[in-house]
Amino acid sequence: MLTVRKMQPADVPAAAVIECSAPDPWNEKQLAEELQSDFSRNLVLCEQRDGVECILGLCSAQTAAGEATLNAITVDPAARGRGCGAVLLNALLESLAAEGVSEVYLEVRTQNAPAIALYEKTGFVRTGLRKRFYKNPPDDAVTMKKELPAAGG
Ligand SMILES: CC(C)(COP(=O)(O)OP(=O)(O)OC[C@H]1O[C@@H](n2cnc3c(N)ncnc32)[C@H](O)[C@@H]1OP(=O)(O)O)[C@@H](O)C(=O)NCCC(=O)NCCS
Question: Which among 35, 62, 87, 98 counts the fewest CB atoms within 10 Å?
Fold first, then answer.
């Protein structure tokens, strides 16, 4: 069974290993710093295996004045393609809506078809293109936005 919960400091090493598979990964230090920020919302997706909790994915968003930016979402490569990313992202969007966030923004590499497909499936719409936004390898960024329903609505 998949469950989503807040990321804890003890999750950082496992989360950092998963992050290594992302195009622009965060390291342990960056993840730990996110947990220190009052404006950061960080979730992990877990699965019980023989009574042991395994972390399969993580996501992170920064909030400000009723808006949020999705900064990271990464699923363990071995667990991709079975709905984990969608579960994680929907859980994050639900919790952001519950705290009154009305708009979520993100940037994604134009070459990152799986992520773009996940975002479009989750209701994000394209708002623009930032030329040469990424390095290593160079790429443009697609900018996307999703409006969230008002809390309680
Ligand atoms: C993007 C990512 C989080 C998706 O996680 P996932 O668990 O594989 O995604 P899901 O299985 O929940 O798939 C949800 C939807 O995403 C899309 N999707 C996922 N993988 C895809 C692929 N390889 N090709 C095309 N679309 C894909 C599909 O629309 C899918 O819905 P469907 O299964 O009904 O077709 C995962 O590929 C990942 O960790 N990538 C590396 C990190 C990254 O690039 N993060 C985004 C940075 S902006």
Answer: 98
